[in-house]
Every structure is written in structure tokens, then in C-alpha cells.
Write a structure and sequence with these properties.
mainly alpha, 73 residues, 0% strand
């Protein structure tokens, strides 16, 4: 068995899963902070939250692109 390839795939899976979770949780946190009325410039925080959600969605779509063989032809 090719152990180096197995470790590479496992490492890539771990890094991408952590990236998606961190981006989503950061987006949720920024959305909650933007909803607070005492915070200055909630528009900037809400925009950053939407950017985090967008990057999270792009990461998921890129993962689907890599998994589905129809797209890699």
C-alpha cells in the first residue's frame, strides 16, 4: 500500500475540513457581532461575514469539482 499517498489525502482532508469549519464559524460570529447595536460600523462586519460564507461555499464547490468525475474530463 502507498502510505505516503494515504497520508497526503488524509492531511488534505483535514486541512480542507478545518478551513470550511473556521470560515463558517467566523461568518456566524461576524453576523452576530454585526447584529449588536452598540458596535460601530456593523456594515463592514456584515460584509466580512458574507465574504466568509462565500469563501466557505467556494471551498465546498471546489471539493465537489474534485470529487465528481464528470467535471474533470
Amino acid at each position: 500500500m502507498k502510505w505516503l499517498e494515504l497520508l497526503t489525502v488524509g492531511g488534505a482532508t483535514l486541512v480542507s475540513a478545518v478551513t470550511v469549519v473556521v470560515l463558517y464559524s467566523l461568518g456566524v460570529r461576524l453576523t452576530a457581532i454585526a447584529g449588536d447595536t452598540e458596535q460601530p460600523s456593523p456594515r463592514v462586519k456584515r460584509s466580512l461575514a458574507y465574504i466568509c460564507f462565500g469563501l466557505c461555499g467556494l471551498a465546498v464547490l471546489f471539493g465537489l469539482y474534485l470529487i465528481i468525475p464528470y467535471f474533470s474530463k
